[in-house]
Amino acid sequence: MRQGVTRPETPRDRAEREALETDLLDSPVAGKPIRRRLRNFRPGADAALRALGGPLAWMRRLRAIEVTIDDHEARLRRHWHELRAQHSDDAEFARAWRQLAESWSFRDVNRLIEGHNRYFPAEARLPMNPRTGDFVHVNGRPYTRRPLDAQWILERFPPEGEPEWTHSQDNS
Fold first, then answer.
1. Which pTM value belongs to this model?
2. Which residues does 153 contact at the CB level (< 8 Å), separation at least 6?
3. Could you tell me if residue 151 is inside a domain?
């Protein structure tokens, strides 16, 4: 590190300097002040305070939704294997699985999803589409989430046949 020490000019340095000087001769902005680029926003104190507070409410809620859904999937997978072991007949298993799906409670995750659907646009400052009057899509999809129900279970864990996840994951 040559702090405070100037090095001699090399032929390459000289060529670069001469090229820059010839470019400046033909430049229309040489000797004129550069135009300032104005921004359409002004950082405020509220943005700094939000940044210091960690993840925002909608971020924490989305994470809680994902964790809760993962928990439901793990429990449903366990129940699926238990019922499969108890019922050798496919029709009997399908009936028992549909009955379990109908009685399964998603109250906890559906409460989170309801809060997400209600508060996310305001909390995330989601802009509106002026043509439709609706909020813009997030990553190409609507921001709303569908509440979970028996149909969700039967789509993920069909009673007929072997689901894909039974081949690739451990039964525990």
1. 0.65
2. 76, 101, 104
3. yes
